[in-house]
Amino acid sequence: MDRVLGLAVVSSVLCVGSVLGKYVRGIVNTKEDWVFLTRFCFLTDFGRLDFKFRYPKSRCCQNILLYFDESSQWPAVYKRPEKDCYQKEAVLRPENNQVINLTTRYTWSGCVVEGEGDEILSCVGGRSFRSVRERWWYIALSKCGGGGLQLEYEMKLTNGQSFWTQHFSADEFGILETDITFLVIFATVFTLSCYFAYNLKGRQLLHTTYKMFMTATGVEVLSLLFFCIYWGLYARDGVGNGSLKILGKLLFSVSFLVFLLMLILLGKGFTVTRARISHSGSIKLSIYMTVYTITYIILFIYEAEFFDPGEVLYAYDSPAGYGLMGLQLLAYVWFCYAVLVSLKHYPEKQPFYIPFFAAYTLWFFAVPVMALIANFGISRWAREKIVNGIQLGIHLYAHVVFLAITRPSAANKNFPYHVRTSQIGILLSSPKGMGAESFPHHAYGNSSFLGDSQPNFTELFSIHSAPVKTIDEAVGWKGQEVARNSDQKIITTTADLSSTFSPPPPPIPPRSSTHSPPPPRLTSHFTEYFSMQGGAGMGSKA
Protein backbone atom coordinates (compact mmCIF):
# COMPACT_ATOMS: atom_id res chain seq x y z
CA MET A 1 0.00 0.00 0.00
CA ASP A 2 2.81 2.39 0.86
CA ARG A 3 4.42 1.74 -2.49
CA VAL A 4 1.22 2.48 -4.39
CA LEU A 5 0.66 5.57 -2.27
CA GLY A 6 4.17 6.77 -3.03
CA LEU A 7 3.61 6.29 -6.75
CA ALA A 8 0.36 8.21 -6.50
CA VAL A 9 2.06 11.11 -4.77
CA VAL A 10 4.90 11.15 -7.31
CA SER A 11 2.45 11.06 -10.20
CA SER A 12 0.50 13.95 -8.72
CA VAL A 13 3.69 15.96 -8.30
CA LEU A 14 4.66 15.34 -11.91
CA CYS A 15 1.36 16.82 -12.98
CA VAL A 16 1.88 19.98 -10.97
CA GLY A 17 2.41 23.12 -12.97
CA SER A 18 3.97 24.95 -10.02
CA VAL A 19 4.74 23.26 -6.72
CA LEU A 20 7.84 25.23 -5.82
CA GLY A 21 5.96 28.03 -4.09
CA LYS A 22 2.86 28.22 -1.92
CA TYR A 23 0.64 28.23 -4.94
CA VAL A 24 0.09 24.50 -5.21
CA ARG A 25 -1.88 22.95 -8.03
CA GLY A 26 -2.10 19.55 -9.61
CA ILE A 27 -4.23 16.53 -10.44
CA VAL A 28 -4.79 13.39 -8.39
CA ASN A 29 -6.04 10.22 -10.08
CA THR A 30 -5.44 7.07 -8.05
CA LYS A 31 -7.16 3.97 -6.73
CA GLU A 32 -6.07 4.84 -3.20
CA ASP A 33 -8.63 6.22 -0.75
CA TRP A 34 -6.27 8.53 1.19
CA VAL A 35 -3.52 10.74 -0.32
CA PHE A 36 -1.23 13.46 1.06
CA LEU A 37 -1.27 16.74 -0.92
CA THR A 38 0.97 19.38 0.69
CA ARG A 39 2.10 21.00 3.97
CA PHE A 40 2.63 24.52 5.28
CA CYS A 41 3.73 26.14 8.54
CA PHE A 42 1.13 28.75 9.54
CA LEU A 43 1.46 31.62 12.00
CA THR A 44 -0.62 31.69 15.17
CA ASP A 45 -3.23 34.19 13.92
CA PHE A 46 -2.58 35.05 10.28
CA GLY A 47 -2.55 31.69 8.50
CA ARG A 48 -4.85 31.42 5.51
CA LEU A 49 -5.72 28.69 2.99
CA ASP A 50 -7.62 29.61 -0.20
CA PHE A 51 -8.60 26.67 -2.38
CA LYS A 52 -10.31 25.63 -5.57
CA PHE A 53 -11.21 21.96 -6.15
CA ARG A 54 -12.92 20.32 -9.14
CA TYR A 55 -13.93 16.69 -9.62
CA PRO A 56 -16.69 14.68 -11.40
CA LYS A 57 -19.90 14.46 -9.43
CA SER A 58 -19.93 10.74 -10.20
CA ARG A 59 -16.83 10.38 -7.95
CA CYS A 60 -18.56 12.02 -4.98
CA CYS A 61 -17.98 12.46 -2.16
CA GLN A 62 -14.40 13.44 -1.32
CA ASN A 63 -12.98 15.22 1.73
CA ILE A 64 -10.12 17.60 2.42
CA LEU A 65 -8.45 16.70 5.73
CA LEU A 66 -6.41 19.20 7.76
CA TYR A 67 -3.92 17.64 10.22
CA PHE A 68 -1.51 19.51 12.50
CA ASP A 69 1.83 18.41 13.93
CA GLU A 70 0.76 17.02 17.32
CA SER A 71 1.78 13.41 17.94
CA SER A 72 -1.88 12.38 18.07
CA GLN A 73 -2.55 13.85 14.62
CA TRP A 74 -0.23 13.69 11.62
CA PRO A 75 2.47 11.41 13.07
CA ALA A 76 -0.29 9.03 14.15
CA VAL A 77 -1.59 8.49 10.60
CA TYR A 78 1.23 9.12 8.13
CA LYS A 79 3.13 6.03 7.04
CA ARG A 80 0.95 3.83 9.21
CA PRO A 81 -0.11 1.00 6.90
CA GLU A 82 -1.91 -0.75 9.76
CA LYS A 83 -4.52 2.05 9.79
CA ASP A 84 -7.26 2.23 7.20
CA CYS A 85 -8.94 5.34 5.80
CA TYR A 86 -11.63 5.48 8.50
CA GLN A 87 -9.06 5.28 11.28
CA LYS A 88 -7.03 8.08 9.69
CA GLU A 89 -10.12 10.29 9.57
CA ALA A 90 -11.07 9.41 13.14
CA VAL A 91 -8.13 11.31 14.70
CA LEU A 92 -9.50 14.62 13.37
CA ARG A 93 -11.74 16.90 15.39
CA PRO A 94 -14.78 18.07 13.42
CA GLU A 95 -15.41 20.84 15.98
CA ASN A 96 -12.07 22.35 14.90
CA ASN A 97 -13.22 22.43 11.26
CA GLN A 98 -10.46 20.00 10.24
CA VAL A 99 -12.66 18.27 7.65
CA ILE A 100 -13.90 20.00 4.50
CA ASN A 101 -16.60 17.89 2.87
CA LEU A 102 -16.55 18.66 -0.86
CA THR A 103 -20.31 18.47 -1.46
CA THR A 104 -23.13 20.95 -1.96
CA ARG A 105 -24.57 19.88 1.40
CA TYR A 106 -21.60 21.39 3.25
CA THR A 107 -22.05 25.16 2.96
CA TRP A 108 -18.51 26.11 4.01
CA SER A 109 -16.97 24.13 1.17
CA GLY A 110 -18.42 26.52 -1.43
CA CYS A 111 -19.28 23.68 -3.83
CA VAL A 112 -21.60 24.14 -6.81
CA VAL A 113 -22.53 21.86 -9.70
CA GLU A 114 -21.29 22.92 -13.12
CA GLY A 115 -21.93 21.65 -16.63
CA GLU A 116 -24.52 19.52 -18.36
CA GLY A 117 -24.32 15.76 -18.68
CA ASP A 118 -20.95 15.01 -17.04
CA GLU A 119 -21.53 17.26 -14.07
CA ILE A 120 -18.57 18.71 -12.22
CA LEU A 121 -18.44 19.72 -8.57
CA SER A 122 -16.52 23.01 -8.30
CA CYS A 123 -15.59 24.07 -4.75
CA VAL A 124 -14.11 27.50 -4.00
CA GLY A 125 -13.49 28.67 -0.46
CA GLY A 126 -10.95 29.18 2.27
CA ARG A 127 -9.88 28.53 5.84
CA SER A 128 -8.12 30.59 8.50
CA PHE A 129 -5.72 28.92 10.93
CA ARG A 130 -5.29 29.91 14.58
CA SER A 131 -3.17 28.11 17.16
CA VAL A 132 -1.13 28.73 20.30
CA ARG A 133 2.15 28.63 18.34
CA GLU A 134 3.41 28.26 14.80
CA ARG A 135 2.38 24.84 13.56
CA TRP A 136 2.92 22.62 10.59
CA TRP A 137 -0.38 21.79 8.90
CA TYR A 138 -0.70 18.83 6.53
CA ILE A 139 -3.41 18.66 3.88
CA ALA A 140 -4.71 15.29 2.67
CA LEU A 141 -7.51 14.04 0.41
CA SER A 142 -9.75 11.08 1.27
CA LYS A 143 -12.74 9.06 0.11
CA CYS A 144 -13.23 6.10 2.40
CA GLY A 145 -15.15 3.10 1.11
CA GLY A 146 -13.38 2.52 -2.20
CA GLY A 147 -13.76 3.89 -5.69
CA GLY A 148 -10.46 5.78 -5.73
CA LEU A 149 -9.73 9.48 -5.90
CA GLN A 150 -9.93 11.93 -8.80
CA LEU A 151 -9.43 15.63 -8.13
CA GLU A 152 -8.05 18.77 -9.75
CA TYR A 153 -6.82 21.15 -7.06
CA GLU A 154 -5.35 24.62 -6.63
CA MET A 155 -4.35 26.05 -3.24
CA LYS A 156 -2.83 29.29 -2.03
CA LEU A 157 -1.26 29.25 1.44
CA THR A 158 -0.26 32.56 3.04
CA ASN A 159 0.84 34.14 6.32
CA GLY A 160 -0.46 37.71 6.54
CA GLN A 161 -0.12 40.36 3.85
CA SER A 162 3.44 41.64 4.37
CA PHE A 163 5.97 41.28 1.55
CA TRP A 164 8.36 39.55 4.01
CA THR A 165 5.82 36.99 5.31
CA GLN A 166 2.86 36.51 2.96
CA HIS A 167 4.10 33.62 0.85
CA PHE A 168 6.60 32.28 3.36
CA SER A 169 6.00 29.32 5.59
CA ALA A 170 6.61 30.29 9.23
CA ASP A 171 9.80 28.20 9.32
CA GLU A 172 11.13 30.36 6.44
CA PHE A 173 10.58 33.73 8.09
CA GLY A 174 13.72 35.86 8.09
CA ILE A 175 15.62 33.82 5.51
CA LEU A 176 15.46 36.56 2.87
CA GLU A 177 16.58 39.25 5.33
CA THR A 178 19.36 37.00 6.66
CA ASP A 179 20.63 36.20 3.17
CA ILE A 180 20.67 39.88 2.19
CA THR A 181 22.65 40.75 5.33
CA PHE A 182 25.23 38.04 4.76
CA LEU A 183 25.46 38.95 1.07
CA VAL A 184 26.54 42.48 2.03
CA ILE A 185 29.03 41.16 4.61
CA PHE A 186 30.55 38.57 2.28
CA ALA A 187 30.79 41.14 -0.52
CA THR A 188 32.75 43.34 1.90
CA VAL A 189 35.05 40.44 2.79
CA PHE A 190 35.61 39.70 -0.90
CA THR A 191 36.40 43.36 -1.60
CA LEU A 192 38.95 43.41 1.23
CA SER A 193 40.50 40.19 -0.04
CA CYS A 194 40.91 41.77 -3.49
CA TYR A 195 42.59 44.81 -1.92
CA PHE A 196 44.92 42.58 0.11
CA ALA A 197 45.64 40.51 -3.00
CA TYR A 198 46.66 43.68 -4.85
CA ASN A 199 49.16 44.49 -2.10
CA LEU A 200 50.41 40.90 -1.95
CA LYS A 201 50.91 40.81 -5.70
CA GLY A 202 52.98 43.99 -5.51
CA ARG A 203 55.21 42.27 -2.97
CA GLN A 204 55.25 38.99 -4.94
CA LEU A 205 53.49 37.15 -2.10
CA LEU A 206 50.20 36.34 -3.84
CA HIS A 207 50.30 32.54 -3.52
CA THR A 208 47.95 29.85 -4.81
CA THR A 209 46.32 29.25 -1.42
CA TYR A 210 45.32 32.90 -1.14
CA LYS A 211 43.83 32.73 -4.63
CA MET A 212 41.83 29.69 -3.50
CA PHE A 213 40.52 31.71 -0.56
CA MET A 214 39.46 34.49 -2.91
CA THR A 215 37.74 31.95 -5.16
CA ALA A 216 35.82 30.44 -2.24
CA THR A 217 34.71 33.89 -1.07
CA GLY A 218 33.69 35.01 -4.56
CA VAL A 219 31.67 31.84 -5.16
CA GLU A 220 30.01 32.33 -1.76
CA VAL A 221 28.95 35.83 -2.84
CA LEU A 222 27.46 34.44 -6.06
CA SER A 223 25.65 31.74 -4.11
CA LEU A 224 24.05 34.28 -1.77
CA LEU A 225 23.17 36.49 -4.73
CA PHE A 226 21.21 33.66 -6.38
CA PHE A 227 19.53 32.81 -3.07
CA CYS A 228 18.46 36.43 -2.60
CA ILE A 229 17.06 36.61 -6.13
CA TYR A 230 15.16 33.35 -5.60
CA TRP A 231 13.65 34.39 -2.27
CA GLY A 232 12.86 37.86 -3.62
CA LEU A 233 10.90 36.41 -6.54
CA TYR A 234 9.25 33.95 -4.18
CA ALA A 235 8.19 36.76 -1.84
CA ARG A 236 6.61 38.56 -4.78
CA ASP A 237 4.55 35.77 -6.36
CA GLY A 238 4.77 32.74 -4.06
CA VAL A 239 6.36 30.65 -6.80
CA GLY A 240 9.90 31.84 -7.48
CA ASN A 241 12.35 30.08 -9.78
CA GLY A 242 13.52 26.72 -8.48
CA SER A 243 16.54 26.69 -10.79
CA LEU A 244 17.99 29.71 -8.98
CA LYS A 245 17.71 27.94 -5.64
CA ILE A 246 19.40 24.81 -6.98
CA LEU A 247 22.19 26.91 -8.52
CA GLY A 248 22.65 28.72 -5.21
CA LYS A 249 23.00 25.40 -3.37
CA LEU A 250 25.53 24.12 -5.90
CA LEU A 251 27.67 27.26 -5.61
CA PHE A 252 27.44 27.11 -1.82
CA SER A 253 28.80 23.55 -1.92
CA VAL A 254 31.58 24.51 -4.36
CA SER A 255 32.67 27.34 -2.05
CA PHE A 256 32.76 24.95 0.90
CA LEU A 257 34.81 22.34 -0.99
CA VAL A 258 37.36 24.88 -2.26
CA PHE A 259 37.80 26.30 1.23
CA LEU A 260 38.17 22.82 2.75
CA LEU A 261 40.83 21.90 0.17
CA MET A 262 42.67 25.14 0.90
CA LEU A 263 42.75 24.37 4.63
CA ILE A 264 44.18 20.90 4.08
CA LEU A 265 46.82 22.26 1.69
CA LEU A 266 47.85 24.95 4.18
CA GLY A 267 47.98 22.35 6.92
CA LYS A 268 50.38 20.33 4.79
CA GLY A 269 52.49 23.47 4.36
CA PHE A 270 51.75 24.20 0.71
CA THR A 271 53.00 27.74 -0.15
CA VAL A 272 54.01 28.15 3.52
CA THR A 273 56.79 25.60 4.01
CA ARG A 274 56.91 23.82 0.66
CA ALA A 275 56.55 24.61 -3.02
CA ARG A 276 54.79 21.41 -4.05
CA ILE A 277 52.82 18.55 -2.54
CA SER A 278 54.38 15.12 -2.86
CA HIS A 279 53.10 12.74 -5.51
CA SER A 280 51.49 10.41 -2.97
CA GLY A 281 49.96 13.37 -1.14
CA SER A 282 48.46 14.70 -4.37
CA ILE A 283 46.89 11.31 -5.10
CA LYS A 284 45.39 11.10 -1.60
CA LEU A 285 44.00 14.62 -1.89
CA SER A 286 42.50 13.88 -5.30
CA ILE A 287 40.82 10.71 -4.04
CA TYR A 288 39.48 12.42 -0.93
CA MET A 289 38.05 15.43 -2.76
CA THR A 290 36.52 13.16 -5.41
CA VAL A 291 34.78 11.08 -2.73
CA TYR A 292 33.61 14.25 -0.97
CA THR A 293 32.24 15.72 -4.20
CA ILE A 294 30.44 12.49 -5.12
CA THR A 295 28.90 12.34 -1.64
CA TYR A 296 27.66 15.91 -2.05
CA ILE A 297 26.11 14.99 -5.40
CA ILE A 298 24.42 11.98 -3.81
CA LEU A 299 23.07 14.26 -1.09
CA PHE A 300 21.54 16.58 -3.71
CA ILE A 301 19.97 13.67 -5.57
CA TYR A 302 18.72 12.09 -2.35
CA GLU A 303 17.20 15.37 -1.20
CA ALA A 304 15.48 15.97 -4.54
CA GLU A 305 14.25 12.45 -5.24
CA PHE A 306 13.88 10.59 -1.96
CA PHE A 307 12.98 13.15 0.70
CA ASP A 308 9.39 12.50 1.73
CA PRO A 309 7.31 15.69 1.28
CA GLY A 310 5.06 14.46 4.07
CA GLU A 311 7.88 14.85 6.60
CA VAL A 312 9.89 17.89 7.66
CA LEU A 313 13.44 16.78 6.99
CA TYR A 314 16.85 18.41 7.07
CA ALA A 315 19.44 17.79 4.36
CA TYR A 316 21.89 16.16 6.81
CA ASP A 317 19.14 13.88 8.17
CA SER A 318 19.94 11.26 5.53
CA PRO A 319 22.58 8.60 4.82
CA ALA A 320 24.45 11.00 2.53
CA GLY A 321 24.30 13.70 5.20
CA TYR A 322 25.82 11.42 7.83
CA GLY A 323 28.44 10.42 5.27
CA LEU A 324 29.39 14.08 4.82
CA MET A 325 29.75 14.50 8.58
CA GLY A 326 32.04 11.47 8.67
CA LEU A 327 34.17 12.86 5.84
CA GLN A 328 34.37 16.19 7.67
CA LEU A 329 35.77 14.46 10.77
CA LEU A 330 38.20 12.48 8.62
CA ALA A 331 39.38 15.75 7.07
CA TYR A 332 39.97 17.12 10.56
CA VAL A 333 42.16 14.14 11.53
CA TRP A 334 44.16 14.67 8.33
CA PHE A 335 44.35 18.40 9.04
CA CYS A 336 45.70 17.77 12.57
CA TYR A 337 48.38 15.38 11.34
CA ALA A 338 49.46 17.74 8.55
CA VAL A 339 49.76 20.74 10.89
CA LEU A 340 51.76 18.76 13.47
CA VAL A 341 54.20 17.55 10.80
CA SER A 342 54.60 21.08 9.43
CA LEU A 343 55.30 22.44 12.92
CA LYS A 344 57.79 19.66 13.62
CA HIS A 345 59.91 20.59 10.61
CA TYR A 346 59.28 24.35 10.75
CA PRO A 347 58.87 25.39 14.40
CA GLU A 348 59.46 29.02 13.43
CA LYS A 349 55.98 28.94 11.83
CA GLN A 350 54.24 28.63 15.20
CA PRO A 351 52.93 32.25 15.10
CA PHE A 352 50.87 31.22 12.07
CA TYR A 353 50.02 27.57 12.66
CA ILE A 354 48.95 27.73 16.32
CA PRO A 355 46.12 30.31 15.84
CA PHE A 356 45.35 28.74 12.45
CA PHE A 357 44.91 25.30 14.02
CA ALA A 358 42.90 26.58 16.99
CA ALA A 359 40.51 28.67 14.87
CA TYR A 360 39.75 25.97 12.33
CA THR A 361 39.41 23.19 14.88
CA LEU A 362 36.25 25.03 15.93
CA TRP A 363 35.20 25.29 12.28
CA PHE A 364 35.68 21.59 11.56
CA PHE A 365 33.48 20.60 14.50
CA ALA A 366 30.90 23.34 13.96
CA VAL A 367 29.34 21.75 10.86
CA PRO A 368 28.71 18.24 12.33
CA VAL A 369 27.55 19.71 15.65
CA MET A 370 25.18 22.05 13.82
CA ALA A 371 23.77 19.12 11.83
CA LEU A 372 23.18 17.04 14.97
CA ILE A 373 21.53 19.96 16.77
CA ALA A 374 19.33 20.63 13.74
CA ASN A 375 18.28 16.99 13.54
CA PHE A 376 17.55 16.46 17.21
CA GLY A 377 17.52 19.77 19.08
CA ILE A 378 15.57 22.34 17.02
CA SER A 379 11.80 22.34 16.65
CA ARG A 380 10.72 21.48 13.14
CA TRP A 381 8.60 24.60 12.78
CA ALA A 382 11.71 26.77 13.32
CA ARG A 383 14.46 24.56 11.91
CA GLU A 384 15.03 25.96 8.42
CA LYS A 385 15.45 29.63 9.37
CA ILE A 386 17.69 28.85 12.37
CA VAL A 387 19.90 26.42 10.46
CA ASN A 388 20.23 28.89 7.58
CA GLY A 389 21.53 31.61 9.91
CA ILE A 390 23.90 29.28 11.78
CA GLN A 391 25.32 27.82 8.57
CA LEU A 392 26.03 31.23 7.08
CA GLY A 393 27.55 32.37 10.37
CA ILE A 394 29.94 29.39 10.38
CA HIS A 395 31.05 30.17 6.82
CA LEU A 396 31.53 33.85 7.64
CA TYR A 397 33.64 32.98 10.70
CA ALA A 398 35.95 30.82 8.57
CA HIS A 399 36.45 33.50 5.91
CA VAL A 400 36.95 36.40 8.31
CA VAL A 401 39.54 34.47 10.35
CA PHE A 402 41.56 33.66 7.25
CA LEU A 403 41.30 37.25 6.02
CA ALA A 404 42.64 38.46 9.37
CA ILE A 405 45.62 36.11 9.68
CA THR A 406 46.76 36.74 6.10
CA ARG A 407 46.40 40.51 5.99
CA PRO A 408 49.56 42.07 4.54
CA SER A 409 50.48 44.30 7.46
CA ALA A 410 53.78 44.82 9.25
CA ALA A 411 51.87 44.47 12.53
CA ASN A 412 50.57 41.00 11.59
CA LYS A 413 52.73 38.48 13.42
CA ASN A 414 50.69 35.55 12.04
CA PHE A 415 51.42 36.16 8.35
CA PRO A 416 52.21 32.76 6.78
CA TYR A 417 54.12 33.55 3.59
CA HIS A 418 57.84 34.38 3.43
CA VAL A 419 58.95 32.97 0.06
CA ARG A 420 58.10 35.10 -2.93
CA THR A 421 56.33 33.79 -5.99
CA SER A 422 59.40 34.59 -8.13
CA GLN A 423 61.48 32.24 -5.98
CA ILE A 424 59.04 29.32 -6.15
CA GLY A 425 59.71 28.87 -9.85
CA ILE A 426 63.43 28.45 -9.13
CA LEU A 427 62.68 25.93 -6.38
CA LEU A 428 60.32 23.93 -8.57
CA SER A 429 62.89 23.77 -11.36
CA SER A 430 65.26 21.93 -9.03
CA PRO A 431 65.31 18.14 -9.30
CA LYS A 432 63.25 16.21 -6.79
CA GLY A 433 65.22 15.20 -3.75
CA MET A 434 67.39 18.33 -3.97
CA GLY A 435 65.22 20.47 -1.69
CA ALA A 436 62.75 21.42 -4.38
CA GLU A 437 59.68 20.64 -2.29
CA SER A 438 60.64 22.41 0.94
CA PHE A 439 61.21 26.11 1.45
CA PRO A 440 64.30 27.36 3.32
CA HIS A 441 63.78 28.05 7.01
CA HIS A 442 62.77 31.65 7.47
CA ALA A 443 60.42 33.20 10.00
CA TYR A 444 58.12 35.92 8.79
CA GLY A 445 59.67 39.31 9.20
CA ASN A 446 58.20 42.78 8.89
CA SER A 447 60.93 43.71 6.41
CA SER A 448 58.79 42.12 3.71
CA PHE A 449 56.60 45.20 3.88
CA LEU A 450 58.96 48.10 3.24
CA GLY A 451 56.71 50.02 0.89
CA ASP A 452 53.09 50.23 -0.01
CA SER A 453 53.36 48.13 -3.14
CA GLN A 454 57.07 47.67 -3.85
CA PRO A 455 58.92 44.38 -3.35
CA ASN A 456 61.93 44.22 -1.03
CA PHE A 457 64.71 43.60 -3.54
CA THR A 458 67.26 42.92 -0.80
CA GLU A 459 65.49 39.62 -0.15
CA LEU A 460 64.13 38.93 -3.59
CA PHE A 461 67.15 37.14 -5.02
CA SER A 462 68.74 35.81 -1.82
CA ILE A 463 68.82 32.09 -1.07
CA HIS A 464 68.64 31.55 2.65
CA SER A 465 69.98 28.56 4.52
CA ALA A 466 70.19 27.45 8.12
CA PRO A 467 73.23 28.51 10.19
CA VAL A 468 76.08 26.00 9.98
CA LYS A 469 79.37 25.51 11.75
CA THR A 470 82.19 27.82 10.63
CA ILE A 471 85.32 26.49 9.01
CA ASP A 472 88.36 28.57 10.02
CA GLU A 473 90.86 29.22 7.26
CA ALA A 474 93.73 31.66 6.91
CA VAL A 475 94.11 33.70 3.78
CA GLY A 476 97.64 34.22 2.60
CA TRP A 477 97.20 37.84 1.60
CA LYS A 478 99.21 40.30 3.66
CA GLY A 479 98.81 38.06 6.68
CA GLN A 480 95.11 38.88 7.15
CA GLU A 481 92.73 36.35 8.76
CA VAL A 482 89.11 35.76 8.06
CA ALA A 483 86.99 36.64 11.09
CA ARG A 484 85.06 33.82 12.69
CA ASN A 485 81.36 34.18 12.01
CA SER A 486 78.82 31.62 13.11
CA ASP A 487 76.46 32.65 10.33
CA GLN A 488 78.94 32.19 7.45
CA LYS A 489 80.14 29.12 5.70
CA ILE A 490 83.49 29.33 3.84
CA ILE A 491 83.95 26.77 1.12
CA THR A 492 87.48 26.21 -0.19
CA THR A 493 87.93 24.97 -3.74
CA THR A 494 90.98 24.56 -5.94
CA ALA A 495 90.75 25.17 -9.65
CA ASP A 496 93.29 24.77 -12.44
CA LEU A 497 92.81 27.88 -14.52
CA SER A 498 96.01 27.72 -16.58
CA SER A 499 94.17 26.37 -19.58
CA THR A 500 91.50 28.99 -19.34
CA PHE A 501 93.25 32.28 -18.67
CA SER A 502 96.41 33.65 -20.27
CA PRO A 503 99.33 34.66 -18.04
CA PRO A 504 98.87 38.01 -16.37
CA PRO A 505 100.42 41.05 -18.08
CA PRO A 506 103.67 42.48 -16.72
CA PRO A 507 103.24 44.95 -13.89
CA ILE A 508 102.96 48.61 -14.66
CA PRO A 509 105.99 50.55 -13.47
CA PRO A 510 105.16 52.78 -10.55
CA ARG A 511 105.20 56.50 -10.80
CA SER A 512 108.18 58.36 -9.50
CA SER A 513 106.19 59.62 -6.52
CA THR A 514 105.12 56.11 -5.50
CA HIS A 515 107.43 54.16 -3.19
CA SER A 516 105.23 51.09 -2.62
CA PRO A 517 106.57 47.81 -3.95
CA PRO A 518 104.88 46.20 -6.94
CA PRO A 519 102.08 43.69 -6.19
CA PRO A 520 103.12 40.05 -6.14
CA ARG A 521 102.37 37.90 -9.15
CA LEU A 522 99.65 35.24 -8.93
CA THR A 523 100.64 31.73 -9.75
CA SER A 524 98.74 29.72 -12.24
CA HIS A 525 97.44 27.53 -9.40
CA PHE A 526 95.77 29.37 -6.54
CA THR A 527 93.04 28.92 -3.95
CA GLU A 528 89.69 30.74 -4.29
CA TYR A 529 87.42 31.50 -1.42
CA PHE A 530 83.66 31.90 -1.78
CA SER A 531 81.35 33.00 0.99
CA MET A 532 77.68 31.93 0.96
CA GLN A 533 75.36 34.22 2.85
CA GLY A 534 73.76 32.71 5.96
CA GLY A 535 70.33 33.34 7.41
CA ALA A 536 71.44 36.47 9.24
CA GLY A 537 74.95 37.11 7.92
CA MET A 538 76.32 40.17 6.18
CA GLY A 539 77.11 40.40 2.48
CA SER A 540 79.86 38.08 1.30
CA LYS A 541 83.29 39.29 0.13
CA ALA A 542 85.51 37.42 -2.29
UniProtKB/TrEMBL annotation:
Biased composition (Pro residues): 502-521
Sorted UniProt keywords: Glycoprotein, Membrane, Transmembrane, Transmembrane helix
InterPro entries: GPR180-like_N, GPR180/TMEM145, GPR180/TMEM145_TM
The organism's place on the tree of life at top rank: Eukaryota
A GO cellular component annotation in the UniProt record: membrane
Residues covered by region (Disordered): 494-525
Domain GPR180/TMEM145 transmembrane: 182-402
Protein name in the entry: Transmembrane protein 145
Species assigned in the record: Astyanax mexicanus (Blind cave fish)
Lineage: Eukaryota, Metazoa, Chordata, Craniata, Vertebrata
Gene: TMEM145
